[in-house]
């Protein structure tokens, strides 16, 4: 799986990130796994056409020692569909910017 990953988190940074993600995205149902909705303007043509599959998300995994964002755009409505695909360039930039923004907002150096 392709992903954007930042390793070697300090415990205090993990706690700050967890608090931030919980407040912004809600407490995860699966420990450490968050879902971030992709803006409709960034969806591919196929994703735009699949109204029954919307909204689309990317996953963020937070562990005590790392945080990672998958470069897979998926829906919670289906396990398999043509619209579930690897992120295109714009979506990849959005995913990386999301994580970079979290670190910037929390003043965490990586």
What is the topology?
Blueprint lengths: L2 E5 L3 H15 L7 E5 L7 H5 L6 E7 L3 E5 L1 E4 L9 E2 L2 H17 L5
Antiparallel strand pairs: 1-4, 2-3, 3-4, 3-5, 5-6
Produce a short descriptive summary:
This protein has 110 residues and is α+β, with helices and mostly antiparallel strands. The protein has helices spanning 11-25, 45-49, 89-105; strands spanning 3-7, 33-37, 56-62, 66-70, 72-75, 85-86.
Description of the structure:
It is a single chain. The protein has 110 residues and is α+β, with helices and mostly antiparallel strands. The protein has a single domain, classed as 2-Layer Sandwich (Alpha-D-Glucose-1,6-Bisphosphate, Chain A, domain 4), CATH 3.30.530. Helix content is 34%, strand content 25%. The protein is built from three helices and six strands. Strands 1, 2, 3, 4, 5 and 6 form a six-stranded antiparallel β-sheet that branches. A hairpin with a 3-residue loop joins strand 3 and strand 4. It is elongated, with a radius of gyration of 14 Å. The two termini are 22 Å apart.
Report the radius of gyration as a whole number of Å: 14 Å
How much strand content do the residues show? Answer: 25-35%
Strand tally is: 6
Helix/strand order: EHEHEEEEH
Task: Write down the CATH class.
Answer: Alpha Beta
Mean of pLDDT:
95
């Amino acid at each position: 799986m392709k992903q954007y990953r930042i390793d070697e988190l300090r415990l205090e940074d993990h706690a700050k990130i967890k608090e931030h993600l919980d407040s912004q995205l809600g407490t995860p149902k699966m420990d450490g796994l968050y879902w971030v909705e992709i803006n409709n303007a960034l969806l591919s043509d196929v994703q735009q056409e699949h109204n029954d599959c919307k909204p689309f998300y990317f996953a963020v995994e937070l562990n005590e020692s790392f945080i990672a964002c998958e470069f897979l755009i998926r829906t919670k409505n289906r396990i398999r569909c043509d619209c579930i695909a690897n992120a295109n360039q714009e979506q990849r930039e959005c995913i990386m910017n999301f994580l970079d923004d979290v670190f910037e907002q929390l003043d965490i150096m990586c």
